[in-house]
Design goal:
This protein is 37% helix and 23% strand. Strand 1, helix 1 and strand 2 form a beta-alpha-beta unit. The radius of gyration is 16 Å and the shape is globular.
Length: 172
């Protein structure tokens, strides 16, 4: 079964997580396409879709939400997995799930949502972003846990192998 991995990223960190997921799935023998949300025009060929987004001001980025809105009905007929990346707290761990994730899970019938810690490089930020980072005291560094990304890819692969087909438009 062919898989699609797509993610909305602002400074590239979430794209790198999506790439690592796609690579891990490919190493396990999966046929995986990795595309930006705005570059996907059809999902007919995909049985599994992994959708991710960076978190900014506590929310998913518009390209990921627009992807879900465009393909909502078709996503309900597929295995869908969601992930978010960033922001990080003082201990380098991801903070709580973003407030709009539950709406994305419901819209897609996603099997699961996974929160990954992000990466913060102040040199890539604009003035407003630097002020926001300073205000919340976000630590600089790369906190992405590549082992947890690979473990989650394995969970997706195993679920995909078992089939779990959708038979209706409602999440199981």
């Amino acid at each position: 079964m062919k898989m699609l991995v797509t993610a909305a990223s602002r400074h590239g960190s979430t794209d790198e997580i999506a790439g690592a997921l796609a690579d891990a799935l490919r190493r396990s023998g999966a046929d995986v396409d990795l595309l930006a949300p705005e570059d996907v025009h059809e999902i007919t060929d995909y049985g599994t879709v992994v959708i991710g987004s960076a978190i900014y001001t506590g929310r998913w980025l518009p390209p990921a939400k627009e992807f879900i809105a465009r393909f909502r009905e078709a996503l309900l007929l597929r295995q869908v997995w969601l992930f978010s990346s960033g922001p990080v707290g003082n201990n380098g761990r991801p903070v709580n799930d973003p407030p709009d994730v539950s709406a994305q899970v419901e819209a897609t019938g996603a099997r699961a949502h996974r929160m990954f810690a992000g990466k913060l490089d102040r040199t890539t930020l604009g003035f407003g972003e630097r002020m926001m980072v300073r205000a919340v005291g976000a630590p600089e560094g790369d906190f992405r846990g590549w082992e947890s990304v690979n473990e989650w890819a394995e969970q997706i692969r195993l679920a995909n192998q078992c089939g779990f087909p959708r038979t209706s438009g409602k999440p199981s």
